[in-house]
Amino acid sequence: MNQTQIIGKASLSFNKPAYISNYASVVGQLEGQGPLGKLFDCVEKDPMFGGTTWEEAESFLQNQTLRTLFKKSSLKPTDIRYIFAGDLLGQLIASTFGIINYNMPFFGLYGACSTMGESLALASMTIAGGFADKTIAMASSHFASAEKTFRFPLGYGCQRKQCATWTVTGCGAVALDSKEGIAKITGITPGKMVDFGVKESDNMGACMAPAAADTILTHLTDFNLNANYYDKIITGDLGYVGQTILINLLKQNKIDISANHMDCGIEIFDNANQGTGSGGSGCGCSASTLCSMILKNIENKVWKRVLFVPTGALLNPISFNEGKSIPGIAHAVVIEEV
Prior knowledge:
Elements: E1 4-7, E2 11-28, H1 29-32, E3 42-44, H2 54-73, E4 82-86, H3 93-99, E5 106-109, H4 115-128, E6 134-141, H5 143-150, E7 166-167, E8 170-177, E9 183-189, H6 204-222, E10 232-235, H7 239-251, E11 261-263, H8 264-267, H9 271-274, E12 280-281, H10 283-299, E13 305-309, E14 311-313, H11 317-321, E15 328-330, E16 332-337
Helix pairs in contact: 2-3, 6-7
């Protein structure tokens, strides 16, 4: 029997789901001081994670997250058929140097801040298609390495706009299994690139919201669902600005998600007391929120079914400095209780 079913324009439904057997999250001190602080597996007080550069710090962050996942799950690197991982740095150096010593077959991914959605989608497709029995999906970001790459070195001391999001120092890793787990992935809707012509890198919520709206609309249309089918529709890091745009765009298509929408970038920080602007962002934002609050709520039967939609702004310093617009992308993953 075919284990996957092609649905609508872009979606897949898994007749044989991919099970989430365990998960782990490691974050920095600021994230640990936020509303989700007690839900993370580890809050690291040293922003360098024992390294000597910001890039090395993010590699050590990924390494620590994998160690935590293996410890929690009793898995070994030799048990894992493939690992799908990514970050925001050039040529994925946080991932490559972070996991190189684990000696696992590696797919390096870049979907900007949507990378956790991309890694989950591909890792679950591999399981559901019968090409592996155990995989890992992982993504990370680090505030200082991202600022250095995309904006200005911290020592420059430039002021931040209120619409800007704060890159999360964090990493999340999910172990997927073909047989059993605490939650299951039953379908996906990969997103396409959507460009509304926004050129403001300090307002990535506006860049990403149209892509999130497109993916959510496509998903609901493909599966012939109403928005209230899900306990929560959870975007990655739109922040307060992007959330408003997303809700308004979907209302233009007669879809109202205002009652059950949640954004990881809004949940991870307490903006009033932490001064993080429009909220959190980065690959590690949705990854660490998934591997703490979201999966804990599914495991504890608080939510039966969520649509997890990490969002990404597809820019780099070259394209931005050459005056290009910033396309967005979003990938949707259906996560259900067992």
